Amino acid sequence: MENVRKTFGGGEIVACDDINLEIQKEDFVVLLGPSGCGKTTTLRCLSGLERPDEGHIFIEGVDMTGVKPKDRDLAFVFQSIALFPHKSVRENIRFGLDMSSEMSKSEKNESVEDIAEMLGIENMLDRKPSALSGGQQQRVSLGRAMVMEPAAFLLDEPFSALDANLRKQMQTEVKELQRRLETPMVFVTHDQEEAMAIGDKIVVMNDGHVQQIGSPYAVFNEPANQFVADFIGSPSANLFESRLQQSSDGHTLENDLFSLPIDRELDSTAQSLDTVTFGIRPQYVNVTDTGDALFTGDVTLVEPQGDRDTVYFDVNGHELRTVVPQNTVTAEQNEVNLDIERDKFWIFDRDGKRLL
Ligand code: ATP
User: Which ranges form a coiled coil (predicted)?
Assistant: First the structure.
């Protein structure tokens, strides 16, 4: 996608703008962002269901911007499972081939059976969709897309109607499937945990714009800006308004919680800044028993998560979220020694751009 822009309402609503995205054969791309950020519109532009106001879409090097959806060789799987209720599973999966392919009936059936086996629904081919569970129905939708051997799969929140366990299972399956098929998938979700679990390349969007494109590790550890830092990760990152003080031997960051000498090199534009935002993930705040802790906090809540606890602290009237090994602290503890991993925090400027 090159500089793709799509507006609605005579240009008043900018659904997506300046979208530049390169998708390779082996990619599992996830479009991730809050509701209304333009994920679906971006996917619909890719598919041909929407025509961009500006920009171009190339598929295998060919400009497909004005080409009809059916001529793009892309397959869709939507959130709502639109199977034909009166057709069998076999007929549902075979449907696309029946409409377009020159294959003989036995070749088509063989292809349907191979795909059904890959999806674990080979024993259900003669059933009607109503006799299947939600997860099985979604597998049939996938099968219907797979049988066409498209150049890419486009999936719009395909698992959002499934319960949590089934959703996890389908995520694993679809990721394995993508590896086996070696066909790119573009998957839309607003669920960052789902995105991290399945995506190789995560496209974080907000307000119609791409904020960052990166691996799950990159968007977690090296967010391009404050929006990405805040949106990715659970529990969400700790962000505190701070001041940068310049001294003869470098910078010191100060806020209501602590004073921290900065021994990492700061972006040169930071030299003159005073108000900044300090950010650190809850996973990188530690409870320590040494006397030289950076600051102390009072426990306000402990949420057990199995082997770990999410612990909320009050630090000078600010909420600080941490993730620590189970039973590190109790709910009544006050003045707990806390420290941060010194190579893991970030500093953002007033516009949210990351300086460190
Ligand atoms: P969600 O996660 O809620 O599905 P999204 O990130 O997929 O959201 P889009 O559906 O792409 O977001 O919508 C982006 C913006 O464009 C929203 O403000 C939406 O209201 C607007 N929009 C989308 N389609 C249309 C349309 N056909 N007419 C008018 N506005 C639209």
Answer: none
- Whichever domain contains 279, its CATH number is 2.40.50.140
Question: How many structural domains is the chain composed of?
Answer: 2
Residues 249 and 341 in one domain: yes
The verdict on residue 90 lying in a domain is: yes
Residue at 356 is within a domain = no
Q: Which atom of ligand 1 is nearest to the CA of 208?
A: 14
Counting other chains too, the contacts that 22-25 makes at CB distance below 8 Å and 24 or more residues apart are 23/152, 23/184, 23/186, 23/201, 24/184, 25/182, 25/183, 25/184
pTM: 0.91
> Has residue 112 been placed in a domain?
yes
C-alpha 303/C-alpha 65 separation (Å) is 50
Pair 201, 248: CB distance under 8 Å = no
CB of residue 36 inside a 6 A radius of ligand 1: yes
Tokens at residue 105, please? 């009936």
Domain that includes residue 197, residue range: 2-225
| Distance from Cα 14 to the centre of ligand 1, integer Å | 9
For ligand 1, say whether the CB of 39 is within 6 Å of any of its atoms: yes
Asked whether residue 315 is assigned to any structural domain, the reply reads: yes
- Residue whose C-alpha is closest to residue 79's, from 177, 160, 146, 135: 160
pLDDT digits (tens, 9 = 90+) for 207-263: 999 999 999 999 999 999 999 999 999 999 999 999 988 877 778 899 999 999 988
Residues 300, 329, single domain; the answer is: yes
Q: Are residues 333 and 277 in the same domain?
A: yes
Distance CA 59, CA 122 (A): 33
Q: Is the CB of 35 under 6 A from ligand 1?
A: yes
Ligand 1 centroid – CA 188 distance (Å): 13
Do 167 and 303 belong together in one domain? no
The token pair that represents 206 in the structure block:
């907000």
Q: Residues with Cβ < 8 Å from 16, sequence gap 6 or more?
A: 4, 5, 6, 38, 41, 42, 45, 205, 208, 209
